[in-house]
Specification:
The structure is a homotetramer. In chain A, about 35% of the residues lie in helices and about 15% in strands. The first copy, chain A, is of the alpha/beta class and about 350 residues long. Chains A, B, C, D: Keywords: NAD, Oxidoreductase.
Chain lengths: ~350, ~350, ~350, ~350
């Protein structure tokens, strides 16, 4: 091999979106960068480059046959941040090719917004602003009849991946009792985070604020439905931060519309939401248009994590920032591609 | 003395507002409780009781003459939480009568709301909800063109009393660079809180979020005006959490209306705000009707702190939860009584 | 008054011991400094200077008569850090003269050493070093038969002043269950520090490590004796960090010598300890010659806190770093002067 | 397969050493447990069981041929906590067999002891005890001439794996400036831990306390030698907590003996140390006989982490507590087996 190709095929991202000039220079120091960002890299270009390719950044289709054409390939780095069925994960593992993605890039901005929303729901911030603009505000104690203090209240998390962990860290000064439901984790991991491992029903019935951070899998679609919302305490808060698919959305809206709970959601079954969707008129619902993760620093984190791990891999070291695709579990993930840009 | 009177004269508070049943029982264990809460305790009642009074909870007028009629009086505990000119502070000190108030009772709920509002302004939460309801929402990156991450951003505090300290503690996980202006404090106190002592101008010009927690004194009225707002970075946030009197309010509204800064305010020069006040229509202003402190737990904290310190005083120990009136500085404080209930 | 005298009479301290050049320059900016540090300032000098004195740094005798000769005096700042009977505290208060001392100056170095000693006792660090030097060391698990993990173990504090608070902060990452006995404090203060208010007996019987941070008063001398040591769990640790007088010292040594508990002490009934004192041979006792507080940075903190508060006082503001003498409680304190230098 | 064998071959551990009764019951619920702990499991037994084995706990030799005889094997869980050449890691990965080890089990007790030792060296705790027993103690400031405050001082870490991270967390309240050298990690990981990525030379020359937490690899043996010790500041502390092989041991002892640095070590080139080894007489060296990790709770953590991850693996989920063997990097690790029991 005389060349060291770095194949960059980042759609729906672009290189400028995910890399600051500084990170891009680090990328260029690792090899000869070939980019296709106005369209998916054409098959003939991919196939011509593979024999000399050491790294792929992007969602290029990589079946077993293509992997076999890429004897120097060290890593495929998905910059979409969801593992898709575009790679033969088992074949990649068999050949010692790392398949990784900077899955945690969006965790920090989403967790920050989730705390803002949790306080907002508890203390009625957005609602009070709306009433004030309508000339219907109350003052002092009268304005707090339906509020609760977030400090010291009980919090329940559904899903304790990167997002849940960031959120748990941000709420530390609030001294909440925190219960966590995550069937993919042993109790030890939850206890180390000074939280209580709990069943889904316990999380729902014991928490004044419930935040959903779980991804969608083939097994958990709509797993929070009418029965589950009924378990929640009247007046408690529900934050839907990860994927709309984990809840039965009509049942969710019913629970908010009836006044049983208050809620915030950053995700919707169909995005963009239809202009006449009645979701836009529910008073107890804080609306966020899939916007809590898509900050420019989060996109830059994708590139920074991807490049840092690529540098390690080229030195023969294991990646430490990105998540590895596990052939067994990748199959369970069903995230449909979501374009945050 | 055969009786031990505890004189309770709590208006504008009531005993039920400020004491849970549990705390009230502790109050009653200290002596014979005489309460007047439908009106200020009449002079003749006060004067009849003073010779056997050990504690006063409330804002009863206590000039030197009355103090001389109360030989067993150990403490006057203001439950308004602002020192007013109702007491001859020097005479009380001369007689060894503690004059104290649970000044920090509202700090925790205000600090919590301030963090919610700081994240709200940075990430555009309330504004995005309003746009969504109007059918004008954007998604993902497009919805974040004017946002900034609160995490890691620069924060400036004006005033570092109980409120500022609570806020500083709550933002610890956000790893902000924090600058503090408080002319009543030595640099050591600010540095111990892992913050940078700074001038007012530095706080304003270097911070992406500025939060005002200072009380009003005879010296600092309107000390943040047009010149000061002009020092702020375009697009930065301003939170007014303590007293409207510390800012030049028209200059403040101009700075927001022009789009130079975004802001939240919990206080207004006149409360309630007039129905047709144009403040209600400023898009970049998050409106809160003097409601961030007035939660029921904050009122209960008044009673709990007052009773706990009274118990210590009756045992001959110094109070530790309430603030002591300092004759010299009490004169500087000009807070007009604000009724949060 | 044409001069503004600052009278400095710091024995047993010296000005160089307690002030860095920087702090000394701040002192000199406040007035005309007159120092006597080879001997206590002679009466005739004191009396000549008092009419023009604004600040006293030191332990100068200040009875009512002298106070009356000092019409411009704003503060007496004890740099010994213990209030002594040299001042008429009531008369000073009556005249509005602040009497303060930087009592917390030694808290930080003592707390740091206390944590080192707590881990040392739990894990057997000094003892293992001694065995190793004697050629009697064990390795691995065999060397840990009598150790316990400090992480997660129960800790009890006796006294929760500056020292106890610093210690509580340092152990936060260790996630101990912390019980605190402090009869001068309401439960609220202890609960805010995420600890459990407890009786002395509970602290002793429930804690794997007990640390004594209480000062001596006229009421608590020798309050931890044979009965109290018997309450402790076998193999638990006892740290004596404040004053020897709070324990019945012979009973303490018996409890250690018998092997019932392990212990560390920084204080002794007589200092220096006699050359032939059998305390030097007790294997389970970690010995420290009243040295945990006396670091040079602690002495410098005395001067820095004293000068910072003096600056505030001269501006008409209340001091915030030093402790105020309370005429009522000053009488209870019985600390005999201890010279740490 | 009619049986589900769990093959337990834990030497040099025993099952009782690494599992509490509770954890053992969880082990037994996963299958039929076959244990050999008086000797390594004989070949004929292993080979007879493999066809029905689902899990191996221990260091059983597993070459490619044996792996092929174990069609139901899901995981090999090394309970030695060091990956050894007993497994064909590539063959295991190819067959989807997890090879993992609870590598972090010893991190918590070692980090705790390291903090105790860091404070000990800074403040002279063990040394002061020795002087006191010899009748040569000093008091107060005189006893602190060679001490430094650990609080606020500069700290350098060499190696930032589990151990370094635990240590970094424990020292948070001490507000040190922390520099970290770890060539296996990108700067991002170090910066997230609020530390400064630094070269080895910077860590050595800028830190008042240097702690070595790095494991030995084929590349880093003796990488800290005379040149490196000379870079350290006079009077600074050096803690050797991981493997003796990372330092040039004679050069290390010279640096301590000469008085240039003070040090603590938990590891030695030959263990047990010879009775007449002069290392036993070096005054500035705190001696620990490879005992900081070997606490009973650490051994129990091995079993608890191993069983928790085995439970996940049997449910088709990825392990989350143990470290995975990476065929590429396993080859670099050269830890010779160390028996902590």
């Amino acid at each position: 091999m005389t060349r060291r190709i770095i194949l960059v095929d980042p759609l729906p991202r672009t290189l400028d979106l995910i890399m600051t000039p500084d990170v891009r220079r680090r990328l260029e120091r690792m090899g000869e960068v070939v980019v296709s960002e106005d369209r998916t890299m054409p098959d003939e270009v991919v196939e011509r480059l593979l024999p000399e390719t050491v790294l792929i950044f992007g969602q290029t289709a990589m079946d077993r046959a293509r992997l076999e054409c890429a004897p120097h390939l060290k890593a495929i780095i998905n910059v979409e941040t969801n593992f898709l069925p575009n790679v033969d994960y088992q074949a990649a593992q068999d050949r010692g090719v790392h398949v990784i993605t900077p899955a945690s890039a969006f965790a920090a901005p989403v967790a920050e917004a989730a705390l803002g929303m949790a306080i907002d729901l508890a203390r009625g911030i957005t609602k009070a602003d709306r009433l004030f603009r309508d000339g219907r505000e109350s003052y002092g104690l009268a304005a707090n009849r339906e509020t609760f203090r977030f400090m010291g209240s009980s919090v329940g998390l559904i899903g304790f991946g990167d997002l849940g962990r960031q959120f748990r860290e941000l709420i530390c000064p609030f001294r909440n009792t925190v219960r966590i439901f995550d069937p993919w984790l042993p109790a030890e991991v939850i206890e180390r985070a000074e939280a209580i491992p709990a069943s889904l029903d316990e999380v729902l019935s014991e928490s004044r604020t419930v935040a959903v951070f779980a991804g969608v899998t083939s097994e958990n679609q709509n797993f929070i439905g009418a029965r589950e919302f009924a378990l929640m305490q009247p007046g408690s808060s529900f934050l839907l931060m990860s994927r709309a698919g984990v809840v039965d959305f009509p049942a969710f809206l019913d629970a908010v519309r009836s006044g049983h709970i208050r809620a915030a959601t950053d995700v919707f079954p169909e995005e963009p939401v239809a202009a006449d969707d009645p979701v836009r008129q529910i008073p107890g619902l804080l609306l966020s248009a899939h916007r809590t993760g898509g900050t420019s620093d989060a996109f830059h984190a994708i590139g920074a994590m991807a490049v840092a791990d690529a540098e390690l891999i080229l030195r023969g070291l294991p990646p430490v920032l990105c998540r590895r695709a596990d052939p067994a579990t990748a199959a369970r993930l069903r995230s449909k591609p979501v374009d945050l840009s």
